[in-house]
Amino acid sequence: MRISEFDFELPEALIAQRPAEPRESARLLVLPREHGALSSGVVSELPARLPPRSLLVVNDTRVLASRVFAQKPTGGLVELFVLELGRAGEPVACLARSSKPLRVGTVLAVRGRDGGAAGISAEVVGRQRVAFELDVAEVLARAGHVPLPPYIRRADDAGDRARYQTVFATHDGAVAAPTAGLHFTAGLVEALEEAGHSLARITLHVGLGTFAPVRVEDLAEHSMHEERFVVPEDTAAAIVAARRQGRAVVAIGTTAVRALESAWDDATGIVRKGAGVTRLFIQPGYRFRAVDALVTNFHLPRSTLLVLVSAFAGRERVLAAYAEAVARGFRFFSYGDAMLIA
Q1: What's residue 208's pLDDT?
Q2: Alpha carbons 299 and 336: distance in angstroms, whole number
Q3: 3-state secondary structure at position 27
Q4: Which of 173, 176, 182, 342 could join 293 via S-S bond, C-beta 3.0 to 4.6 A?
Q5: What is the pLDDT of residue 3?
Q6: Which residues pair with 199 in a beta bridge?
Q7: Phi and psi torsions of 112, nearest 5°
Q8: Separation between Cα atoms, residue 290 and residue 239, nearest integer Å
Q9: What is the dihedral of CA 271, 274, 279, 281, to 10 degrees?
Q10: pLDDT at position 248
Q11: How many other CB atoms sit within 10 Å of the CB of residue 289?
């Protein structure tokens, strides 16, 4: 297939710059997976909109405050995008943006969130490798900025530090939020459980590749980014039980889809527990094994995420739903509204 088959017109005004408040007040577009008309509501209606006694699988990754600003000895400013955690003095992967390429041996002065000196140094030790004088977790806690996506055209603020995390966030490692989970609150989780639904967790650390554009026309030539995931034993068992009981497995976000489908074992017909790495590129024609329904945000044109959603419900059906979402003024992307496909 061609990536141009997954394009659509999106007015810039519909790209959400701030989230809905409260979280569960975001709008919800409901698309029956196989046939039936669109309907709409709000995310707080999910308990009644989901298939009865659904098992919801959420991603509990926690987003690192991975954008760090620093200054070269010459005074030039540098933006570092920290891609991993590490100990003091240990080289870690970073993407750097500066007026000129950074030279190995350059010592940078990290700046705090207020723009002043943070009292932390970092040495460039290789191509896209930096060693901080403190543990990276401490550097990010003291000086890191929220890594808002590039289509959010503003600086992060104090509200983003809480709002760009899901209520499930537990395990540090993501550089972008699993955005479908941003709509959930403790109150919504309680309402879901009271309605007979249950929740299970996976961890997939969202990488920068989730924003990587598809640079080839033929999807068969696209190289998919790599992401690490973990399926806990109790989650694997919960999926086995749901399958046995005829209950729907609902992925909360495309990251949960990729983890569960990557962990599926055709030989045994179950989702395997444990850790793994996925480069799975789900395209139309893919046979879904682990996931029956999906809650997701509205994705970028010509993106691998839109391709995945199109594989789940059909390209023409999804693009027609997107056109309707645009016509109705739904908000798109990370801080935007949600879609239920079931």
Answers
A1: 78
A2: 10
A3: strand
A4: 342
A5: 97
A6: 56
A7: -75, 175
A8: 8
A9: 20
A10: 98
A11: 14
**What's at 96, amino acid-wise?**
A
pLDDT of residue 212: 80
Check if the beta carbon of residue 108 is closer than 8 Å to that of residue 119.
Answer: no
- Res. 131: pLDDT tops 80: yes
Q: Read off the pLDDT band of 70 (50, 70, 90).
A: very high
**Mean pLDDT computed over 203-225:** 90
Tokens at residue 331, please? 């908000």
Give the Cβ contact number of residue 87 at 10 Å: 12
Give the Cα separation of 309 and 284 in Å (integer): 9
Confidence of residue 209 (pLDDT cuts 50, 70, 90): confident
Q: Please give the mean pLDDT across all residues of the chain.
A: 96
* DSSP E strand boundaries for the chain: 27-31, 39-42, 55-59, 61-63, 67-71, 77-82, 92-98, 107-111, 117-126, 129-132, 171-174, 198-204, 227-231, 249-252, 264-265, 270-271, 274-278, 293-297, 338-341
Tokens of 224: 């998919």
Report if pTM > 0.85: yes
The number of C-alpha atoms within 13 Å of 298 and in the hemisphere containing its C-beta is 30
Domain 3-63+161-341 is classified in which CATH homologous superfamily?
Answer: QueA-like (3.40.1780.10)
Instruction: Say how far apart CA 62 and CA 246 lie, in whole Å.
Output: 31
The answer to whether residues 224 and 243 touch, using CB atoms and an 8 Å cutoff, is: no
Cα distances (angstroms) measured from residue 35 to each of 42, 157, 312: 21, 42, 13
Bridge partner list, 71: 77, 109
